[in-house]
């Protein structure tokens, strides 16, 4: 009897590979034996070259973690320019399913056909769970607040925002959650792929409402695609 080959999941990060933390979280939600290949839009760039990719404004700002654990603000335009090459490499690796590991909203890019974007997963869940009411957002940078609130806006929905840095410790996470809870959200979306299950564990008691975590929500959809 010939056993079916295990599927291969391709992941593009807006930063650099390796990101063992992201790969491990996706692997945990994939069918047993799934091979995970991760490539970064900024692969091949030196630290100095990355530092030159400065955002033009808040709307052009992405926040990510590089290999080695350094957190940086980078230009979204630069990431969009470099992403098609990363997608193309993953297709060359023979990946069965591709995911673009960022919760930002992106325009059509060459090679993005049938790629899963976590922003669409989160938005779909939030729309289904909260057709009207008040949505709370946790975001990495305060300067992204206006842009991201606009991204989530729809009729019947009030959006409130609170910043929580990726490097925040337990006390900072709890404080941010209390500030957001004071704004009385009905549901919270954690709008960054680098927030982890530990981050959710730290904020949820203070929030008092359900919280959607991008990486695990996306991972569960990927399992449906890979099984």
Structure description:
The chain is α/β, with parallel strands linked by helices and 227 residues long. Helix content is 39%, strand content 22%. It is built from 8 helices and 10 strands. The chain has helices at 20-29, 47-51, 76-92, 118-129, 145-152, 170-181, 197-207, 214-226, and strands spanning 8-13, 35-40, 61-65, 71-75, 97-101, 115-116, 133-139, 157-163, 187-190, 211-213. The strands form 3 sheets. It has a 4-stranded parallel beta sheet, with helices on both faces. Helix 1 packs across helix 8 (214-226). The mean pLDDT is 91.
Question: What's the main sheet like?
Answer: 4 strands, parallel
- Count of helical regions: 8
Low-confidence stretches: none
Instruction: Walk across the major sheet and give the strand order.
Output: 2-1-5-6
* Helix content range: 25-40%
Structural class: alpha/beta
Bin the strand percentage. 15-25%
Anisotropy-based shape = globular
- The helix/strand series, from N terminus to C terminus, equals EHEHEEHEEHEHEHEHEH
- Average pLDDT, rounded to a whole number, is 91
Gyration radius, to the nearest Å? 17 Å
N-C termini distance: 19 Å
DSSP E strands, number: 10
């Amino acid at each position: 009897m010939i056993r079916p080959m295990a599927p291969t999941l391709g992941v593009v990060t807006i930063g650099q590979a390796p990101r063992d933390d992201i790969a491990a979280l996706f692997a945990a939600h994939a069918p047993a034996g799934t091979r995970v290949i991760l490539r970064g839009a900024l692969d091949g760039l030196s630290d100095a070259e990355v530092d030159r990719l400065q955002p033009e404004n808040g709307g052009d700002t992405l926040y990510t973690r590089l290999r080695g654990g350094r957190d940086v603000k980078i230009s979204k335009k630069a990431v969009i320019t470099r992403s098609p090459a990363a997608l193309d490499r993953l297709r060359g690796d023979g990946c069965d399913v591709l995911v673009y590991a960022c919760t930002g909203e992106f325009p059509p890019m060459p090679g993005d056909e049938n790629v899963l974007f976590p922003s669409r997963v989160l938005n779909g869940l939030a729309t289904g769970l909260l057709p009207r009411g008040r949505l709370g957002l946790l975001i990495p940078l305060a300067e992204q607040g206006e842009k991201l609130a606009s991204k989530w806006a729809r009729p019947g929905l009030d959006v409130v925002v609170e910043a929580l840095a990726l490097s925040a410790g337990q006390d900072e996470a709890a404080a941010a959650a209390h500030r957001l809870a004071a704004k009385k959200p009905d549901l919270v979306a954690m709008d960054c792929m680098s927030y982890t299950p530990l981050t959710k564990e730290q904020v949820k008691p203070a929030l008092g409402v359900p919280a959607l975590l991008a990486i695990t929500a996306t991972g569960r959809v990927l399992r449906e695609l890979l099984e």
